[in-house]
Amino acid sequence: MIYSGNCLSVATLDQASDIAELVFDAPGSVNKFDRQTVEELDAATQALKAAEGIKAVIVRSAKSTFIVGADITEFTDLFSQPDEEVLGWVAKTSQVFDRFEDLPMPTVCAINGFALGGGCEMTLACDLRVADTTAQIGLPEVKLGLMPGFGGTVRLPRVIGSDNALEWMTTGRDRKAPKALAEGAVDAVVAPEALLEAAISMAQDAAANTLDWQQRRAQKKAPLQLGKNEAMMSFSTAAAMVAAQAGKHYPAPHMMVETVKNAATLDREGALALENQGFVKLAKTDAAKAQIGIFMADQLVKSKGKKQAKQATKQVAQNAVLGAGIMGGGIAYQGAVKGIPSVMKDINQAALDLGLKEASGILLKGMQRGKVDGKKMAATLANITPTLDYSAIANADLVIEAVVENPKVKGIVLAETEDAVADDAIICSNTSTISINQLAKSLKNPSRFCGMHFFNPVHKMPLVEIIRGEDTSEETINAVVATTLRMGKTPIVVNDCPGFLVNRVLFPYFAGFSRLVLDGADFTAVDKVMEKQFGWPMGPAYLLDVVGMDTADHAAGVMSDGIPERMQKIDNDPVTVMFSNERLGQKNGKGFYDYGTDKRGRPTKVPAQTAFELLAPHVAEKRDFSAEEIIARTMIPMANEAIRCLEEGIVASAAEADMALLYGLGFPPFRGGIFRYIETMGLQNFVDLADKYAELGPIYQVSEGVREMARTGKSYFA
């Protein structure tokens, strides 16, 4: 044994005593680069350097995957330190990789499973790389608002070229082994059972100098081999692509392009110094804090979901969806495509036809993009059984009611369903606003009933809001969570209240928008600010058109009845004005905007002159509002209601609330979610800003709970 640590060890191979094997095998299910692993890698490097008779080193993992990256849990505290300390840490860590790269013998990396982030950088510190067919290699740091910090921006461009490297890094997409081979990131791809043998053979060839490992190493330590014109073209193209795709809100990809460009003429030492500096700048940005926060929150939600699913005692072999059409068809498709047979029941054939059309349309688009083959399409459609007869749902283990959003109609359907299914079948409602406790009164056994709120379009939106009623059993919740995960969705469990979590916080946002318009704001100006500056995928007027004015007006009524102290319907609400004049939004091609197609058949969206004319009698004289005021007047009501949901126990944690809004509404990821947004602003600053607008009404008035947190310096993420 040359070196033995807790996370890795080094020993000579039995087959050849002059070849050493550095094996990553950390406690737990995966290998990560935490501080201890980095320290052990440095100690192992020193031991290898001092060892006599070692002619080559193989680096591999003893687990089913190589190294999944750095340990993100260590970042939060680290990044809060002064710049000099963060710079000292990243420089010291990257130098560990340098020392390994400088070993006086060739190094070969045997890659299996994921080699991401620091794991990918470890492979790049080796002279040669062989991957098995399970390998996936990449640098996903951009998804955390960061850039590679252990030499990735230096080594990858010198291994596969700057164009390829920048595409890897600025998108964060990993490569499967064959693509990594085609782009030059690995030198060979073999079957999993042949990986070690291939690495040994490669190490022997390198030790015998039949493979020129010295030249490869020298190339990684030298300036980029780019001519002046070639470099100018390469980096200007990369900068333009990043500007178009990432926009101004995500500094990480811009920093990567700038760093690789400025380091192009430098050797390894100079290039790494630039990488270290860029990493520290990004680590201190609000975007990095937000995106790391999202990662941590996502891990929490996934862990919680898996734990609940493991506790499920009811096995779901068949779903049933009541109410076809676009939503019902989307839900049936989502179960079917994940291998869960789904009965789709409706009272008329036209709705069933529409539901099947929705499912087949999703599959056809997948085929056009090369993501779905004929076999997948046939198997998915075969898993959907359309029916007009209640008897067809008799064997369903889980029934999802998705009929019209009317409590009386839903109550009748739920009662009929209970009579048609087995006593242990789970019954859910896909309601978006109606109280689960109210709907549960239609059932003899409300313990097996809960809300299962999908978002439209079902196949694209990751979130399913699972709503626990006062009589819902934990067995029911666990089984629905397990089924949601099987359907490929992210479940977040909330308690019952009007609008639940997502719609309860969305409608105060819409109310803030409506009041702005009534006070003289141009709805197109509001949309522009909320999209371009705040970062929403759609501004509020556009989103209302997508939701549908009939749906929005109805839901506003439900919210008004349920929370009258804050959500009374607004007199002359622009939403109601549109609805009353049959401007339903995208449903009939006219709302705040007019929708159509151009000469090439591409969809168009133009501000509707009719909308301005209809609103004119109800709104104040047109005036311009600053971007800051538009953001404050729309976002304060949303933030206040999210805080109340947390304080009332509707949602269990700020992290879950953030993920619900991210996955259910498209909350801007660079802001990290509603609670991360509030905390980035600073709780006291948020209270002060809200107080500035408090006279606008109850939705602008903060709770005593947040005032107390601001006074005592507490955090929603403590």
Automatic annotation (TrEMBL):
One Pfam family, short name: ECH_1
3-hydroxyacyl-CoA dehydrogenase C-terminal domain residues: 499-595, 630-712
Pathway(s) where this gene product acts: Lipid metabolism; fatty acid beta-oxidation
Enzyme class: lyase
Known EC number: 4.2.1.17
InterPro entries, A to Z: 3-OHacyl-CoA_DH_CS, 3-OHacyl-CoA_DH_NAD-bd, 3HC_DH_C, 6-PGluconate_DH-like_C_sf, ClpP/crotonase-like_dom_sf, Enoyl-CoA_hydra/iso, FA_oxidation_alpha_subunit, FadB
Gene3D superfamilies (alphabetical): 1.10.1040.50, 2-enoyl-CoA Hydratase, Chain A, domain 1, NAD(P)-binding Rossmann-like Domain
Residue intervals of the 3-hydroxyacyl-CoA dehydrogenase NAD binding domain: 320-497
Catalysed reactions listed for this entry: a (3S)-3-hydroxyacyl-CoA + NAD(+) = a 3-oxoacyl-CoA + NADH + H(+)
Keywords: Fatty acid metabolism, Isomerase, Lipid degradation, Lipid metabolism, Lyase, Multifunctional enzyme, NAD, Oxidoreductase
Family: In the central section; belongs to the 3-hydroxyacyl-CoA dehydrogenase family. In the N-terminal section; belongs to the enoyl-CoA hydratase/isomerase family.
The protein's name: enoyl-CoA hydratase
Organism: Alteromonas arenosi
Taxon lineage: Bacteria, Pseudomonadati, Pseudomonadota, Gammaproteobacteria, Alteromonadales
